[in-house]
Design a protein that fits this description.
Cyclase/dehydrase; COQ10_START; 7 strands; seven-stranded antiparallel sheet; 151 residues; START-like_dom_sf; globular
């Protein structure tokens, strides 16, 4: 099992950050423009049972990724898990913590790459580098948008 973690202190109240993540266009906003990803659908917002579907492109090969929300505690947490996709397993926990009127945004992912420990050893570093790049972008966008919101 591999782990990914990213934390950013956003200069906005927790309600503003949660509201930002509830936006219907949130996936479009948080997807880096250079990544070969198509957003197919998003249904149910952040609630338990919500579904997001993507098409990832690995060169010319399309890969379907479907994630569903298994937990939601407004405005502190939501969790999505891969139902269909390229990973053997994937659980992404999104935490929102109040820190004196600001919000600590935390993304924590536990995942397994198909093929076992040898494959994880061979390409785990590459997957981690893609996650680092993507979540750096997501946290920067979150900071930018949330600091400009007026609630």
């Amino acid at each position: 099992m591999l782990k990914f973690y990213r934390s950013t202190l956003i200069n906005a109240p927790i309600e503003a950050v949660w509201q930002f993540y509830e936006r219907p266009d949130i996936l479009q906003l948080l997807t880096p423009p250079w990544q070969p990803v198509e957003i197919i659908r998003r249904e149910g917002g952040l609630a338990v049972g919500a579904v997001s579907e993507f098409r990832l492109w690995l060169g010319l090969i399309p890969i379907t990724w479907v994630a569903y929300h298994t937990e939601c505690e407004k405005p502190y947490l939501f969790v999505d898990c891969q139902k269909i996709g390229p990973m053997k397993s994937w659980e992404h926990r999104h935490y929102f913590q109040d820190e004196k009127g600001k919000t600590r945004l935390i993304d924590e992912i536990n995942y397994e790459i198909p093929g076992g420990i040898i494959v994880e050893f061979l390409i785990g570093w590459w997957v981690d580098s893609r996650l680092q790049e993507m979540f750096r972008y997501r946290h920067e966008v979150s900071q930018k948008y949330c600091c400009s919101l007026k609630i």
